[in-house]
Structure to design on (289 residues):
């Protein structure tokens, strides 16, 4: 078995070197497709981070009754923190709410100062683990006697969740489509290399070589093309990322992710995997003619 693998690897390297033009074309195609694929992965990662940050900003705002005591408010905060849907509970006192209002509406300072008492209610601002949990948390708060009113943003939350789900699903579909296009191009590029060596394959079949004996050198050759293409792509990501970093900085994802371990492993695995699969499908379709 080891001897067969060693022989296949040797034949694959000889075929890769001996068909320099086709090997270069296949490698260049692989690099182009992997650069496109990795760029798309980076953009989708940035999009997902943006969507996650938007999700994290969803808050349930509960306005408290002026008659509620501090111990009652503390008890409500504790019960909220114990809910699995809640990640953070913030308390805004009446004085802080008053100061925030004055800061945001300086043109209405005279009006609010003319009132005999501070009209701003204290409130709780609850961050959710998932925007879909809004209804459960809001319902719990509405049934609490210390809560006067819960800010109704259900429609906004529903719309946001719909948009986020559509964007994420669209990103996955685009990634799959690009992956299939990459596979299609690589399969046809390697098929040209197989056809160009049709005489060699026919001679091997005439002398009694099995399909596996013919196929595996091509499969390993595809792996070499994929590996070389992936290494070149990872090397190209450094200058490309440096060039695009001013634009990537608008996303809540570090530009260094482009050459980070995760993307590099994805590019490496995709390159070798597509090269192997493309070669296997190309040779298999040729041998079964």
């Amino acid at each position: 078995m080891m001897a067969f693998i060693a022989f296949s690897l040797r034949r694959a390297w000889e075929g890769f070197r001996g068909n320099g033009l086709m090997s270069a074309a296949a490698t260049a195609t692989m690099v182009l497709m992997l650069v496109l694929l990795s760029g798309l992965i980076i953009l989708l990662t940035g999009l997902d981070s943006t969507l996650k940050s938007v999700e994290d900003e969803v808050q349930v705002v509960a306005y408290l009754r002026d008659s509620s005591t501090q111990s009652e408010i503390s008890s409500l905060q504790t019960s909220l923190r114990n809910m699995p849907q809640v990640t953070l509970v913030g308390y805004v006192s009446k004085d802080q709410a008053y100061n925030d209002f004055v800061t945001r509406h300086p043109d209405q300072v005279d009006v609010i100062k003319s009132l005999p008492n501070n009209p701003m209610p204290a409130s709780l601002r609850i961050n959710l683990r998932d925007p879909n949990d809004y209804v459960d948390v809001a319902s719990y708060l509405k049934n609490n006697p210390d809560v006067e009113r819960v800010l109704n943003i259900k429609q906004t939350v529903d719309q946001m969740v719909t948009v986020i789900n559509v964007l994420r699903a669209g990103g996955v579909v685009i990634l799959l489509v690009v992956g299939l296009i990459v596979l299609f191009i690589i399969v046809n590029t390697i098929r040209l290399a197989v056809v160009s060596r049709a005489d060699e394959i026919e001679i091997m079949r005439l002398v009694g070589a099995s399909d596996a004996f013919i196929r595996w050198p091509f499969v390993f050759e595809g792996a070499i093309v994929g590996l070389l293409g992936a290494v070149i792509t990872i090397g190209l990501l450094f200058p490309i990322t440096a060039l695009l970093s001013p634009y990537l900085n608008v996303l809540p994802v570090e530009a260094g992710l482009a050459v980070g371990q995760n993307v590099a492993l994805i590019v490496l695995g995709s390159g070798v995997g597509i090269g192997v699969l493309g070669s296997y499908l190309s040779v298999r379709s040729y041998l079964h003619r």
Summary: The chain is about 70% helix and 10% strand. The longest strand covers residues 86-92. The two ends are 28 Å apart (CA to CA).
